[in-house]
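INFO  loader      accepted 1 record
INFO  loader      residues=270
INFO  predictor   begin
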Amino acid sequence: MIFNRIKRQHWINLLGAAVLFSASATFANGPVGEHVNHLSDNIENYTEEVNWLNTKVEEMIIRYLNGGVEEAKPEQLVEYWEEVKFHSAIETNYVPVYASIWQGLFGIKGAIEDKAPIEEVRKQQLFLQQSLWQALGAVKLAAQYQDKGLTDHVTITQANPTNSLETLDAIKNRLDRVVAKYAEKLPKEAVSLVHDIYLNLFEGVEGELISLDANLVEDMEKDFNVVLPQAIAKADNIDQVRDVVNTMKGKIDDAHSLLSQSAEKRKDVF
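INFO  predictor   done
INFO  writer      dumping tokens
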């Protein structure tokens, strides 16, 4: 029973993530392909690519066992990932697991380069495999929603939120991209994205929030301008950055509740 509940909640989480079809035209591996607007037509190809990636990783580990770091060529891992179309399919649909894939790639790469025991390399390999299959599941769900017209096509620019509640949702989504940029070993881009989120999104709602909870606003301002940038600069691993982001998301949820309650009260007045 407990397992079934956990499994069901896992797919509920994926389902919620799948409908967050973000809209940025350029990603880590260059311009997004038109294939992301026709996910169902490409599921078979994405599945083949995931199998291909897992095979290339296994071959690399075997080379590591037989000939060491030089024979393994761990630097090729990132090239493999950026080569496949699935790269942009998952980046446009489920950013949290996109960051986990990068974490797995660099986990394997780092373990091999550090000449770690094979048990550690296999541990990182398992994490990457789980992330890839989870990502494929999210893309399959997104394809179903896309076929029903319930998700938008990827457009040239990001859609601007139309109200404060949408803005808070957008902030949470883009904070996931901060984690992804850190996972990609792009800390400067991650910090730049944090500043962009603060200036172009959070500042648009903080005036409304101050009247409801000034201390919460002050706390969140510190997170955006001090805590998260410092975590990106000083963290030893992605989990430390993700922990800060998750804490910030909790505060954003609190802000969302405050704004929702405020809106309901205004409705009652009129």
